[in-house]
Amino acid sequence: MFSKSCEYGLRAIIYIAQQTEQNNKVSLTTISEAIDSPQAFTAKILQQLTKNNVITSIKGPYGGFIIEKEKMKTVTLGEVVKIIDGDSIYTGCGLGLTQCNANSPCPLHFKFIAIREQLRKMLESTSLEMLVKDMNTQNFCLKR
């Protein structure tokens, strides 16, 4: 459903949020290892998130990536998805057909509308802070 970039981006920001909660800055290498993602690919994703002011990149030997604790309360998974994948997940055809629309629907068109709306609500109502709190009560791994 999400692009590979988006999957890695969601895992990366969740990992960064977990580490920020513990007052840790994390390096690119640490993040890519923790989420089982190629380092160069992870770097491009983190660059997008930094450019969009979701995470902060601190340069230098004691640098790394963090997310401000106040942002963890307000940044939702929906924002991350939009930064990385745009809004195509909410508008695209469930079968990936370019000509699918209300006037010329694919077999899944009208069923998929409800699913997309549920997905939108879940992503837009789930903050990083909520996820980190939930994850602290569970044994959870961000690797595949």
From TrEMBL:
Phylogenetic classification of the source organism: Bacteria, Pseudomonadati, Bacteroidota, Flavobacteriia, Flavobacteriales
Species annotation: Flavobacterium jejuense
- Sorted alphabetically, which InterPro entries does this protein's record hold? Tscrpt_reg_Rrf2, WH-like_DNA-bd_sf, WH_DNA-bd_sf
Name-wise, this protein is Rrf2 family transcriptional regulator
| Database matches in Pfam families | Rrf2 (PF02082)
TM ranges are none
Entry's PROSITE patterns? HTH_RRF2_2
